[in-house]
Every structure is written in C-alpha cells, then in structure tokens.
Amino acid sequence: MGLLSKKDSRLILDPLADNNPITIQVLGICSALAITAELEASIVMSISVLFVMGVGNVVISLMRNVIPSKIRIIAQLIVVATLVIIVDLVLKAFAYELSKTLSVFVGLIITNCIIMGRFEAFALANGTWRSFLDGIGNALGYAVILIIVGFFRELLGSGTLLGIPVLGDPIEKTGLYAIGYENNGFMLLSPMALIVVGIIIWVQRTKNKALVEDH
What we know:
- By secondary structure, the chain is mostly helical.
- The protein contains nine helices and two strands; from the N terminus they run H-H-H-H-H-H-H-H-E-E-H.
- 33% of the residues are buried.
- It catalyses: a ubiquinone + n Na(+)(in) + NADH + H(+) = a ubiquinol + n Na(+)(out) + NAD(+).
C-alpha cells in the first residue's frame, strides 16, 4: 500500500484542477490580481502560502479539541498571523528587495479566504495528516494559477521571465523586437490579471463540461 490512499490523494489532486480554490471556488483572487506582474513574486507568494497553509492546517488540527467554539476564529487568526510574521521576517532577511515588492500583500495572507476557509472547513474536523495534505493541496492549486498568470503577464508585459530577457532586447531591437514586436504594457496592469484568470476559467470549463453551472 502506498503512502497515500486514493482518498488522501484526492486532497492534493482535486484543488489542482476540478476544485481549484481560485478558478472554481473563486477565493484568493486579490493576490492573484495584485502581485502577478512578475513571475518571481508569484512564486515567492505561492511558497509563502504553501508554508502557511501546510503548517497552519496541522496546528489547527492539533488544537481542534481544545479550542472553544466561540473563539475559534480568533485562534485561527492568531495561528495564521504567527506564521505570516515568520514568512515576512524570512523574506526581509534573505530577499529584502522582493519583500518590498510584495510589501503589504504578505501581511494580507492573514485574511486570505482560502487559508481561513480550510482551517474552518477541514482542519477543525480532521486529523493532522489529512489536514496537512488538504493544506498542501489547496496551496498548490493556488500556486498553479498564480504562476500561470505571473508567467504570461511578465512574458507579454515585459518580455522577461524571472527578470531575464527571453524575447530579445527592446532597445537594441533584437529577437522578436527585430520583427516589430512590442511589449504589451496593459499586461502589467491589475485588470489584465483578472482577464488572464478569466481565460484560465474558460479553458478549464471548456475541457470539463461538468464544471459549467446550470442556470
């Protein structure tokens, strides 16, 4: 028998596609719009949320039998705030420039609907192992969308990936710029992130008709 049962595997695999927290549950949209103009920021935010959700779900699961129901939301906020402070301090210590780019959005992980939703809906009712898998799965689902959006926004908006020119030099007119290509500055604006997410949602529902809501 493998490490993960079929039921446990679904906790990781479902949020990657058919139950994605951004495209299906429509949660965590704010950061998807705000910080995805650069792929590096998208990756770092994804790793941050992965840490907070994975560890946070385990902590809440361990505490679930001792947290009074009347203060469970406060307890959850304390746990996530502590983890976010750790993430913020690590970023400032090892990636200060990037921490300034992410600035307030790291702090807003505290109020990320995905995290609080999984604490409330899953970690409070399940054991530590399944809670850990649920946190990792939903964080990966969130990360996939952020990285896809960040990839296309930086590529089409700046002609770079992770700050490295990949389409040529727009000043020297090399690569694609030599045949008249120009960067699309609109891709760097937040509304374009919403459009890219919308395209992902459209593609996802086109491939899986079961996701299309009946009216």
